[in-house]
Specification:
This protein is an alpha+beta fold. The chain is built from 4 helices and 5 strands, in the order ββββαβααα.
Length: 181
């Protein structure tokens, strides 16, 4: 019975997530599986991968063939590297302690890269938000200047309009006094 490590699609239309499963190669994609060993959500940035490392390694050792996408996921998580190191230990190229040190160093480096990407994404988000706020502040300042200028013009027009009738009133009073006399 040829066994495959493959993805089983779940989720809704245009927003899929996947279960990483061990299944008979003749079974349908979303059909019966032997065991579920993890999940993969490509909708997040970076993609979220939850994998049972030991089960994946055991199935690889037992001969399960991963599909291309699952092979990339296993490589990303270090399962293939661990299998490679264990093969070197079996051949006597180095000891198991050396293999564990190499793998631990690789995992630390990988985690640092992932954290750097997350920090970069968060920093980019903060920087873009700050830039938008600055541009919005500039627009608001130009609007405030335009409104202040328009209000000053309206106030000047209103002051000029009130001064004209006040100047006419003493002349009108003088004319009414002369008419009475």
């Amino acid at each position: 019975m040829p066994v495959k490590m493959r993805l089983q699609r779940h989720g809704r239309k245009r927003y899929a997530y996947y279960h990483i499963v061990i299944a008979d190669s003749r079974a349908p994609r979303d059909g019966r599986n032997i065991e579920r060993i993890g999940s993969y959500n490509p909708n997040t940035n970076p993609a979220t991968i939850d994998l049972d490392f030991d089960k994946a390694l055991t199935w690889l050792k037992n001969g399960a063939q991963p599909t291309d996408t699952v092979r990339a996921i296993l490589s990303y998580k270090g399962v293939l590297y661990k299998k490679h190191l264990l093969g070197g230990v079996a051949k006597g190229a180095f000891t198991e302690e050396e293999a564990e040190k190499k793998f631990a160093a690789w995992v630390a480096e990988k985690e640092a890269k992932i954290q750097a990407k997350k920090d970069k994404l968060a920093g980019d988000s903060v920087a873009s938000k700050k830039q938008r706020l600055e541009s919005e502040a500039k627009v608001n300042a130009t609007r405030a200047e335009a409104i202040a200028k328009r209000n000053a013009e309206l106030a000047a027009q209103a002051a000029a309009a009130t001064e004209e009738p006040a100047a006419e009133e003493p002349a009108a009073e003088a004319a009414s006094e002369e008419a009475e006399a």
